[in-house]
Amino acid sequence: MPKVKTSRVRHPEGWERIEPTLLEFDQQMRDATSESHEGKRKAESLWPVFKITHQRTRYIYDLYYRKREISRELYEFCLEQGYADPGLIAKWKKSGYERLCCLRCIQVRDSNYGGTCICRVPKSKLEPGTVVECVNCGCRGCASCDV
């Protein structure tokens, strides 16, 4: 006789500690997606979604790699369930990408001249007083050398 599959997901140990924060991020995501897009550019309406995704991924990354407060099992569970972006975390582990805002900013095919996004340019290389805002995600600068 085949096993009966249930829709319940078994949460690893330690889930109770991070669940309220993840539920708060989910509520923020729902609010951001239901927000009015009147008067905004097409890409600009997605900026809050990118920001919340970045914050949620950074939260899980910090808990596992920096603070060591969650187990590997819980970390992998969060990646499998889509609470964190594994591609973004993989980039954060590499030198020079510690503050990367989103993966679209390093895609050379998404730029006009085959380079990375303007937010990846160090602020010391820009003219003084220049305000930089990424077209993809609304980031104001995520170069690793900027503190």
Automatic annotation (TrEMBL):
InterPro entries, per database record: BUD31 (IPR001748), BUD31/G10-rel_CS (IPR018230)
Source superkingdom: Eukaryota
Keyword Nucleus set for record: yes
Subcellular location: Nucleus
UniProt keyword list: Nucleus
Protein name: G10 protein
Family: Belongs to the BUD31 (G10) family.
